[in-house]
Amino acid sequence: MSDDGLPEPDRVEGAPHPRETLRVIGQGAAEAEFLDAFNTGRLHHGWLISGPRGVGKATLAWSIARFLLATPLAQDDGLFGAPPPPTTLDVAPDHPVARRVLALSDPGLFLLRRGPNEKGDRLASEILVKEVRKLGNFFALSAADGGRRVVIVDAADDLNTQAANAILKMLEEPPARTTILLISHQPSGLLPTIRSRCRMLRLHPLAAPEMAQALDQAGIIPEGNAAALAELSGGSVGEAVRLINLGGLKMYGELVGLLGSLPRLDRARALKLAEAAATRGAEERLDLLLGLTDLMLARLARSGAVGHPPVTEVATGEAELMARLAPTPQMARAWADCAQEIGARARHGRAVNLDPAALVLDTVFKIQKTAAG
Prior knowledge:
The chain has 15 helices and five strands. It has 373 residues and is of the alpha/beta class.
């Protein structure tokens, strides 16, 4: 919980907050790029950390923040010369800065994220300009300290128009000794002028071994095949945690089993799937089911286009299923068209609050029609 008693908007349910994660996994190139800029005196005042959701962008931002706040500003080299350049962003967990950052009490750090709405009873859907204006007090109070200041914006995609313009002004006229770290899942949606005033750090999806390390660091023990989890999550730790919490691997296996009955649909299995999505409080499971269906259709289309199933089989029987249902490029096109139509129907159904069971069955019958040719 944040200080206002509301959930932290930048925390994935079931996983530690990124500030609690002390080691960035699988993003060595981005770490090295930042360290090179730091060690060669080319530390930019604005950094845009981009990449898919859940691949470690916030973890990297917090690592950079701890590193900068724990590293003294350059002084006269004196008698013994300058210390050797750092080779890692790591800061010991018992370092005073690490402790203060963990407690959100370091005077040199400001976290900009979605705050309460106007009523104060829930989180706002955007980062409002009133949150950005709090930076004025932060800079005024931290000026006397004389050390570095770090601002983390998580996520820049959430900035509304006024807030984005306020951040832009700050990037155009950066306060002294300040580094601004903007986290973005879709940087193409940001103001071009914000992008142009930042140096980009691009992060990439994690491979299966890196995914296993990241989950182990978070204290999460996944069930089933780690490689399948990495494949299904697209290399995103955040998405992997969601899949684990909601039984995503099992749900995908159920989808494979259902499609395995095509073109003669197992109606009992389809009804069971629809009923599970229609139970009270199952909105997240419905969203996951629709997302996994879209992913399965995409994998079917890709299988037909390249002439072979994916290298990593997510569920038992998936490779055989894809070879049978997508044997040609023509069927690949049919599955791609099917995915597009189902996606549009699902978005419309969710928008008009269509009965979830009816939405699932409509999806299944469209897939059956495509399989029958």
